[in-house]
Specification:
This protein is mostly helical. The chain has 2 domains: 39 residues, no CATH class; 195 residues, no CATH class. It has 12 helices and no strands.
C-alpha cells in the first residue's frame, strides 16, 4: 500500500509535468504516458527501491538456506537423495565387489549409510554461518547476486563460508561418525580387506572425505532453492519476494 505522502508527491509531480508539457505538440501522447505510469505507481507496482531489493534478497537467502539445510539434515536427507548421497570412498569402492563376494555386503552398506547419517547430523550447524554471511553482505554483493546467474547467491555463500564451514563440520563429522558407527564400520572393512588376497589396503582420510562431500551436497541443495526462488513464482512465499523477483 502507498502512503498518503507518497501519493501526494506522485500527484504533484504528475500535475507539474502536465502543466509544463501543456504547450507542446506532444501533450496528448505524453499526458497519456504520465497517466498510465502514475496509475501503475498508485497500484503499488512502482519500481522497487534499492533498499527493498537488498531486503528482499536477504529474505530470499534466509529462506533458501533454511530450506536447504532442512532438506539435508532430516533422516536420510543425504542417503535417500541420489544427487547428494555420499558414496563409498574411492579405495573402498575399488574393492566393494570383492568385499560383497566375501560376504561383507552388510558391513559395506552399514558403512555407507553411517557416513551419510553423520553428514545429516552436522548440517544444521551451517545456519549460523550462513546468517553471518547474509549480515555481512554489501550493496555491491547484493547487486551482483541480483543481476547474476541463477546460482550467483550460492557462489557468494561458497566463497564467504566454505572455509568456516569446513572448520566447524570436520570435528562434528568426526564425532558423528564415531557416534553412528561409521568409523568403526570403516575399521572393520579395513580389517576384512587385509584378509582378501590382492585386495590391497584402504587408505582414506575419512573425516576430510565426509566433510567435503557433506558441504558439496549442502551447496547443491542451496543452489536448487535459489533457482526456485528466481524462476518459480510459487517459491516466493512472501510479498517482498514476489515484488523483488518478478
Amino acid at each position: 500500500m502507498q502512503s498518503k505522502k507518497q501519493i501526494h508527491v506522485v500527484l504533484n509531480l504528475f500535475f507539474v509535468l502536465l502543466f509544463v508539457c501543456a504547450s507542446t505538440s506532444s501533450y496528448g501522447k505524453f499526458g497519456d504516458f504520465l497517466k498510465d505510469t502514475v496509475g501503475e505507481m498508485l497500484k503499488g507496482e512502482k519500481i522497487t527501491t534499492e533498499s527493498e531489493m537488498i531486503q528482499g534478497l536477504k529474505e530470499a537467502l534466509q529462506i533458501g538456506t533454511e530450506k536447504a539445510i532442512g532438506t539435508v539434515s532430516r533422516v536420510n536427507g543425504y542417503y535417500d537423495n541420489p544427487k547428494i548421497r555420499i558414496p563409498l570412498p574411492g579405495p573402498v569402492e575399488k574393492v566393494e565387489k570383492l568385499l560383497r563376494v566375501a560376504g561383507y555386503g552388510t558391513q559395506v552398506d552399514t558403512f555407507e549409510k553411517s557416513m551419510n547419517r553423520a553428514a545429516e547430523q552436522a548440517a544444521p550447524a551451517a545456519q549460523t554461518i550462513f546468517v553471518e554471511a547474509i549480515g555481512e553482505m554489501t550493496i555491491t554483493d547484493a547487486q551482483r547476486i541480483l543481476k547474476g546467474s541463477e546460482n550467483e547467491a550460492t557462489l557468494y555463500f561458497k566463497d564467504k563460508t566454505y572455509g568456516k564451514l569446513e572448520e566447524i563440520f570436520k570435528p562434528m563429522v568426526k564425532s558423528s561418525m564415531s557416534e553412528v558407527g561409521a568409523t568403526r564400520a570403516y575399521q572393520n572393512l579395513h580389517e576384512k580387506v587385509q584378509t582378501i588376497p590382492f585386495a590391497g589396503s584402504l587408505s582414506v582420510d575419512l573425516d576430510t572425505y565426509v566433510t567435503e562431500r557433506s558441504l558439496d551436497g549442502l551447496f547443491l541443495m542451496l543452489a536448487e532453492e535459489e533457482a526456485k526462488i528466481r524462476t518459480d513464482p510459487a517459491a516466493r512465499v512472501t510479498d517482498l519476494l514476489k515484488k523483488v523477483f518478478k
